[in-house]
């Protein structure tokens, strides 16, 4: 039981690493929370810090989720050799959830972090690459048509549990994906209001005809 708690704590702390905040402070000497949307995530890092730092933040945030599922169990087995296979199955879902929670509510930033999209993608990449690929296709299609990162993320989140069902995943996994979907949509509630009002910011500017 101790190693399970330990693994969840490590996964949370991994997810809680405030990548965008760190890049802002050490590359531009700015607090990213005071710029753009104020969000500590890859999209705001892209807008505020530039293309290369934004992409770097995006990749690292993905790796936080993947690492929580793939690397944390290996590390815990090394620390607790008797843990055996007890860190498999549904425990991996808890580790993924802990990493996402860490990103959204990081202890290092008074529990105010990003929206968890990139870290969630990393978790799903480790648990089911096929489902992630499907969500990425949905994200890409929506973004290509409308040029809104937020809208693409929302639609991809909604597609997540649908793909889980279509791929015949276990009920635990489907419920996990459904929770991620609800959490993702809720995290974008302010974006949804701006989309409805027509004031949401696009990453790519669209020329007026």
Features:
209 residues, mainly alpha, 2 domains, 10 helices
List the helices and strands and how they pair.
Blueprint lengths: L1 H14 L3 H10 L13 H8 L1 H29 L10 H15 L12 H11 L1 H18 L2 H18 L4 H17 L1 H9 L12
Helicity range: over 70%
Write down the secondary-structure element order: HHHHHHHHHH
Strand content range: under 5%
The rough form would be described as globular
Number of domains: 2
Can you give the mean pLDDT?
92
Low-pLDDT stretches are: none
**End-to-end separation:** 62 Å
Radius of gyration: 17 Å
Secondary structure: number of strands: 0
Report a brief summary of the structure.
With 209 residues, the chain is mostly helical.
Plain-language structure description:
The structure is a single chain. The chain is an all-alpha fold and 209 residues long. The protein folds into 2 domains: 1-127, no CATH class; 129-209, no CATH class. Helix content is 71%, strand content 0%. It is built from 10 helices and no strands. It is globular and about 55 Å long.
């Amino acid at each position: 039981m101790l190693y399970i708690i330990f693994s969840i704590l490590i996964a949370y702390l991994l997810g809680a690493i405030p990548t965008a905040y760190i890049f802002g402070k050490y590359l531009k000497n700015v607090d990213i929370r005071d710029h753009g949307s104020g969000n500590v995530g890859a999209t705001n890092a892209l807008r505020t810090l530039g293309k290369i730092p934004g992409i770097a933040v995006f990749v690292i945030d993905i790796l936080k989720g993947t690492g929580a599922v793939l690397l944390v169990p290996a590390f815990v087995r090394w620390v607790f050799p008797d843990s055996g296979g007890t860190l498999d199955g549904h425990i991996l879902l808890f580790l993924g959830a802990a990493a996402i929670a860490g990103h959204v509510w990081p202890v290092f930033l008074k529990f105010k972090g990003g929206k968890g999209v990139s870290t969630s993608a990393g978790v799903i990449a480790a648990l089911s690459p096929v489902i992630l690929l499907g969500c990425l296709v949905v994200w890409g299609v929506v973004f290509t048509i409308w040029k809104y990162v937020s809208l693409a993320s929302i639609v991809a989140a909604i597609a997540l549990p649908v793909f889980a069902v279509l791929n015949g995943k276990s009920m635990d996994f489907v419920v996990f994906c459904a929770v991620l979907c609800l959490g993702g949509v809720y995290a974008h509630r302010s974006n949804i209001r701006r989309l409805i009002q027509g004031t949401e910011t696009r990453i790519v500017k669209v020329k007026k005809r």
